[in-house]
From TrEMBL:
Lineage: Bacteria, Candidatus Yonathiibacteriota
Gene3D superfamilies, A to Z: 3.90.320.10
Species per Swiss-Prot/TrEMBL record: Candidatus Yonathbacteria bacterium CG_4_9_14_0_8_um_filter_46_47
Keyword Nucleotidyltransferase set for record: no
Name of the protein described by the UniProt record: CRISPR-associated exonuclease Cas4
EC number: 3.1.12.1
UniProt remark on cofactor binding: Mg(2+) or Mn(2+) required for ssDNA cleavage activity.
Pfam families: Cas_Cas4 (PF01930)
NCBIfam families: cas4, cas4_PREFRAN
One term of GO molecular function: iron-sulfur cluster binding
Highest taxon of the lineage: Bacteria
Family: Belongs to the CRISPR-associated exonuclease Cas4 family.
Residue ranges of every copy of the DUF83 domain listed in the record: 7-180
Protein keywords: Antiviral defense, Exonuclease, Hydrolase, Iron, Iron-sulfur, Manganese, Metal-binding, Nuclease
Enzyme class, first EC level, given as a word: hydrolase
Amino acid sequence: MEPYIQISKINDFIFCPQSVYLHTIYDNFDAATYHDEPQKEGKLNHENIDNGKYSTSAHILQGMPVYSHHYNLAGKIDLFDREKKMLIERKTSIKHIYDGYKYQLYAQYFCLKDMGYDVERLRLYSLKNNKQYDIPLPGDDETRKFEKIIQRIRRFDVLKNVSCVSEAKCARCIYSNLCHLSGATTRTDQELLNGKK
């Protein structure tokens, strides 16, 4: 049986596959060692959900662990409104709906479906500007794209995937001080990593 993929790693992988590996290096460190302000703010924003204090309504599931045996996924949801049948993922600030946000929400959706919940609506919620973004349920095409991402995560080999995603992403990455690919990776660096002298 293949190991479970953490739902939160899907967004990270889409941002940069290398970041998922680099995150594991910091697993035993205090988060303050490597978190920048956006990560600290995001953690604070999730505390009420993680502690079950966001809502006292019985029909609102918050911070609930979810899993999918079909996709071998596990993680937590932010909010699921059982009356509205709506899954809500909260982000500190949404300026653009990135694929990583969408596929992380799809993973939560598939987990809830596998667990027997009836989910009819998906929503991203931006805390800073109080904006809501309805996301269509995944159709056949989006489901295939989601499955390809899951396959790419499973097949990822940190030693074989040694290219910089983009200099702009590297500049914003909290793992840049650990990453040999950070910034512009030279051809010589890649050749050395591939065993060429």
